[in-house]
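Hi U.,

Before I forget, here's the chain from the pilot set. I'm dumping it here mostly so it's searchable later in email.
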Amino acid sequence: MPSPVVTAFFDRRTGSLQYVLHDPETMQGAIIDPVWDYYPQAGAVTTESADEILAHVRDRGIEVAWILDTHPHADHFSAAVYLSERLGAPRAIGEKVVEVQKLWKKLYNLGEAFPADGRQWDRLFAEGEEFMVGRIPVRVMFSPGHTLASITYVAGDAAFVHDTLMYPESGTSRADFPGGSSQDLWRSIRAILDLPSETRLFVGHDYPDDGAPPQFEATVAEHRARNVHVRDGIDSREFLKTRDERDATLPLPDQMLAALQVNIRGGRLPEPEADGHSYLRIPLGRFEPR
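Structure:
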């Protein structure tokens, strides 16, 4: 099975993993889940995380064929548009993103001026769709639960599983956002764990102690042996109890209400208003404090 080279980039402020995969034979590659840095106290957006990725692909001579999002993220802005403009690569996400757009269009009261049809991306992938990155075949797996629209990219012997699994000792990711479902998450994870045992799974988040490196890669076999939420022998009832009880204690991500209105636009700020500045909308009273 073809094996891509995978380089991880870690945004410690949000605990987010970003990835560059490439085919070592053709040097064609793809960027997955890039971060556009947002500083809420200042209302400032900067590009240091994305620029680190740009420097990597240029230094290594990687021709970027795709810029891929796994889902509309709730904890960081997507840098897909920024990178696409600089690299000339198309942007893609799963086709169920339109359901997330419709949900959050209503929560933000965006009105008919906001198109909830996925046109903000160059390509919307369907379940089971395949494409190539160099000689590496990439298959799209629909894997909802964390969000309605989440997908996994299976690239040769590597799978980018976004916010389904975490490192085995940390278990799994939450499923309590609007449109999320712990039952869907269970089914998605079981499908991922049915991949070949040697498949390398790359997760979307880690939250290490200050100064410690992130943990983000483990094989299917390692997850089945020791993942604290879904290892072999744990059934759906036990998982749902653990996940739902844990989710009930978690506060919403600090950037969620800011990030989703950018990410349902594919990684664009709202259109500037008459003074030339963009403004974010915060829906008041929609969510209970935790």
